[in-house]
Amino acid sequence: MKTDLFPEHIRPHLIPKPKGELYYQCLGCGAQHSVEKLLYVCPECNAVLMIHNRHQEELHKLSGTLWQQIFDYRKMLKIPALKGIYRYHEFIGPILPLESILYLGEGHTPQIEASEFLQEKVGIRFFYKNDGQNPSASFKDRGMASALSSIKYLIDQKLVSDVIAVCASTGDTSAAAALYASYLGPLIKSAVLLPHKKVTAQQLSQPLGSGARVFEIPGVFDDCMKVVEQLSTRYPVALLNSKNAWRILGQESYSYEIAQDFDWDMTHKAVVVPIGNAGNISAVMNGFLKFFKAGIIDRLPKIIGVQSEHADPVYQYYLEPDKARRVFTPVDTRPSVAQAAMIGNPVSMPRVVAIAEEYNQASGQNNVFFVQVTEQAIMDWQLTANQNGHIACTQGGECLAGLVKAKAMGLIALNETVVLDATAHAIKFSEFQDLYFKNRIPRPYHIVPDPERVNLPELVSPENPDLIPSQEKRLEKSEFAQFVQEISEKIAQKMDLTPVDP
């Protein structure tokens, strides 16, 4: 749609120009640093960083209603850079010119209301936001679009060159990093570190297919993370894990989309998020806070963070009600079907603590909660969701299990509408479904298949082996008719079908 067809008061705001002044702020010592260099932790104290806009108050000069209109009308533009997460340019990367923005189709993933049967079973109205429908099939693309756009900006400004990007991953991060880096071709090369035999075959194939150097490391994700942290400290590489504050900016778009999908009304809303490395829940909270401060939404939704009992350091931290006595202690993870969340020492823990406290203060009450779920519940609820019309990954199953747990604990009220984060596409974790159906999930997962959820193919074959067709042996017409009739009757019998009158 051409801009001259828009209302006059909207036209000046439709296509954003670079403005503002972004800077890194250390969550440890409070030091500020320029974003015009590759930086992931504070050079002075090694703590994680957040990105702030020194002129954020300028955004508050426009009314919340006008911002709503800007974003609603911007949906109709056909400019690639504004189709994805940068529809919310002013709140994500306002210093970036549109030509530096990398767009591969990420963002604006569908928010699908749960089927009537599933809502009745759970006892509450809820939606799945299917972030598995991003380009690399996970929510990580939001952060990568932001991180790689920031790197392209530095390249365009001739502030860096010959960039080598690295990340540690449980699977999804590596797929997204490799995809977005490969799009920039010779400008950037990527390497990913994966825990050996701890990612699914589908996830391993993605960075390999995108041309990244893939290194498998003995141990778990936390061990890989220590290696890439060492690399980013000692060598000139770009770190693409959520320690990269630009990743958090991109993932804030998840919140913005939820608000827009509900026509900016966040009354009686709750959002359930798996925690993992804690970057996503930090981004979700921070995104809602930004919109709340700008008057775009007039209340903050409830946030429920979920962890498996096999990887629950954040849940354990918040078990202590007295915040003055809380001490964060990393945990040794145990095998989890929610592999992307199987992290015992999340790098964004300081972000969670800082942002959750601000979120609760802005809400005027405790509005951020954490629940723990079993591996059995994760797998059972994932299968229940997918057998009722959804495409939830195991982390999506973790969210649904978390919703059920939160509701039982009284953290979710019956009049609330809930959005669950399906962080990746179900196909990425289909190996666990296959193991569940075949009763082959290893003992350390502590999962016993429910016979009512097991679904396996049935071979239907004719009694006479001479009537079995193949590519090498095609049947004669009469034989094929006999084959069709016999197979049809067997399937009809298995399905309890009654013949119709001729």
TrEMBL record:
Principal EC category: lyase
Keyword Hydrolase: no
UniProt KW Transferase keyword: no
InterPro entries attached to this UniProt entry: Ser/Thr_Dehydratase, Ser/Thr_deHydtase_PyrdxlP-BS, Thr_synthase-like, TrpB-like_PALP, TrpB-like_PALP_sf
Modified residues (N6-(pyridoxal phosphate)lysine): K140
Cofactor(s) in the UniProt record: pyridoxal 5'-phosphate
Coiled coil (UniProt feature): none
Alphabetical keyword list: Amino-acid biosynthesis, Lyase, Pyridoxal phosphate, Threonine biosynthesis
Residue intervals of the Tryptophan synthase beta chain-like PALP domain: 104-420
An annotated GO BP: L-serine catabolic process
Functional pathway: Amino-acid biosynthesis; L-threonine biosynthesis; L-threonine from L-aspartate: step 5/5
Catalytic activity entry: O-phospho-L-homoserine + H2O = L-threonine + phosphate
GO MF, one example: threonine deaminase activity
EC number annotated for this UniProt entry: 4.2.3.1
Any matching Pfam family: PALP
Record family assignment: Belongs to the threonine synthase family.
PANTHER family in the cross-refs: L-THREONINE DEHYDRATASE CATABOLIC TDCB (PTHR48078:SF6), THREONINE DEHYDRATASE, MITOCHONDRIAL-RELATED (PTHR48078)
Name listed for the protein in its UniProt record: Threonine synthase
